Amino acid sequence: MRRLNRQYPLYELPHCESLRHMLALQVKDEPDRVAFRYRKGRQIVERTVSHFLNDVDALGTWLFDAHLAGSHIAIISPNSYPWLVAFFAIISSGSVVVPIDKDLPAEEQGRLLKHSESAHAFVADRLAEGVGKAASQVDVIPFSRLDELMAEGRARLEAGDRTFVDYKQDVDALSLIVYTSGTTGDSKGVMLTQAGILADINYGCPHFNPEGPSMSVLPYHHMFGLVVALLMLVNWRSTVFINSGLKSLMADFQESKPVTTMLVPLHIQTFHKMIMERAKKEGKYKKLRMGMKLGLMLYALGIDVRAKLMEEVRKPFGGNLRFILVGGAALDPYYEREFRAWGIELITAYGATECSPGIAASRNYYHKEGAVGLPVQHCQVRAAEDGELMIKGPIVMQGYWHDDEATAQALRDGWYMSGDLGYVDKDGFVYITGRKKNLIILSDGENVSPEALESRLGLIEGVNEVLVFQNGDEIEAEIFPDEARMGDQAFFDGQIERFNQTLPPAQHIRRVILRDVEFPKNSSRKILRHEARKDNKNA
User: How many percent of the chain have pLDDT more than 90?
Assistant: First the structure.
């Protein structure tokens, strides 16, 4: 039977006092529950929550015995089970975790290690030599040593050493220095507490229930990937399959058969294009469209046969996928409707590293197209006079590491000034209309949101990726085309001419610039807007 799209009671979960306490509660209730699954060579490895907590306790005990506890400790590695063991052990030992992007050049990794005052770093083996050269002052610990270190810790535990296990954490103390993605400029070190992360978990999880096994895809060095797309799933006691990279993504869908996963809009757009292009190639496009239309019509009448009608579409995602939590950038509501026709609900979310990171999220059965969700409990969201969204609550950061000026600009009377433009409707749903610093202001005073234009331009035939820029008093669109339309300037000029007819004159796009390569992105697949034109010889 169809669930009505209206507010309903929040889900209830045990209250977590620390991240280790979250694991301890689960071990007490379900010690043999499989917490994680992942690939190790050609094998699929399973780890119960008891096994995971034992590994965390072993490494944490070693940290104390080796006198590393209480220092700043970085992690530089792809997503993996050892990454999570290291994270839980470090943050639970009174140390400060510094997650660093594995894909950054070694020189930049070294700069961030120095800036964050990291004394030690757990590093993927293939990166250890480069990190060691770039940051000679840092004690580099290759992940291949983890089993050895945990063995030493277990020996200490068996000998009665309970220093780590009984350690009383100050959850209000600095716990993480997380560097922003730098999509619009230089990255900053955000100072977060375990209390802030716990507030996001305790107050955010009641919004959304994964309703089954899940898959973790987004990088853990970003807060959305770590907290929303991993820790909240762990708190829900969902068995999490750890995807280690894009190369194995589709194979991991088949292996894990998740009910829920978390992705960014670029994933959504790519999957949609993949499905539609395959249908056209196989001569099934009209049949697919008819099935989607029929499925939505019946769903509106309370008859849900979408999964059966769209069985072939759903196969690449394992066949059981029902929810995708989407965050990190704007997503056109068109995709919400398309995926809903496939029996997959796109649950939109809004966050910022500075807010631990979850600010708002839609619910399994309560959402509005175009909205990014309802604020998490005990979190206030409001729009300033100029439309900038302001956030207040226990999720807000302490400030920026060694940057008092940026901290003063971002935090005002306890409110975090997000830099996002938007509004909150009468039902409390939050909407994002663009970024304040990206806003195009023309000479006649007209304000144009490039994100709003980009969202619609992305739906035009032949457009793979697109950004909108201001050039003097004119608006330009820079497009990375599909392979079949690469370099076809006349085609895109015609498409934009027709597109302009749907816009007021002030918003008309006066010039189309084509790219030969995709836009530069960070490891979360978010376009680095400030870098976009530097590498385009056509601009």
Answer: 83
CA 427 to chain centre: 25
β-partners of residue 193 are 174
Vertex 183 angle, CA 178 and 186, to 5°: 65
Task: In whole angstroms, give the CA distance from residue 70 to residue 111.
Answer: 21
Closest by CA to 136, choosing from 161, 103, 105, 113, is: 113
CATH number at residue 402: 3.40.50.12780
Q: How far apart are CA 370 and CA 168, in angstroms?
A: 44
Same domain membership, residue 314 and residue 269: yes
Pairing of strands 240-242, 174-179: unpaired
| 164 and 37 within one domain | yes
Whether the CB-CB separation of 363 and 207 falls below 8 Å is answered with yes
Same domain? For 121 and 203 the reply is no
Q: Do 475 and 369 share a domain, yes or no?
A: no
Phi-psi region of 520 (alpha: psi -120 to 50; beta: other; left: phi over 0): beta
CATH number at residue 135: 3.40.50.980
Query: For the whole model, what pTM was predicted?
Result: 0.89
Task: Establish if 274 belongs to a structural domain.
Answer: yes
- Residue 221 three-state SS: coil
Dihedral, 226, 228, 230, 234 alpha carbons, nearest 10: 130
Asked if 290 and 310 touch (Cβ cutoff 8 Å), the reply is: no
pLDDT digits (tens, 9 = 90+) for 14-55: 999 999 999 999 999 999 999 999 999 999 999 999 999 999
- Tell me whether residue 186 is in a domain: no
**Which residues form the domain of 502?**
439-531
Q: In the 8-state DSSP scheme, what is residue 484? A: G
φ and ψ at residue 350, rounded to 5 degrees: -135, 135
CB-based contact 172:381 (threshold 8 Å):
no
Residue with tokens 């993996």: 80
pLDDT digits (tens, 9 = 90+) for 122-137: 999 999 999 999 999 9
Distance CA 409, CA 417 (A): 8
Closest by CA to 76, choosing from 56, 90, 61, 92, is 90
Torsion of CA 237, 242, 248, 249, to 10 degrees: 40
Cα first-last separation, the chain: 53
Residue 521: CB atoms within 10 Å = 18
Distance CA 365, CA 348 (A): 12
- Same domain? 163 vs 237: no
**Buried b / exposed e across 268-296, counting CB within 10 Å, b at 16+?**
bbebeeebeeebeeeeeeeebeebbeebe
Whether residue 190 lies inside any domain: the answer is no
Domain total in the chain:
3
Residues 25 and 87 in one domain: yes
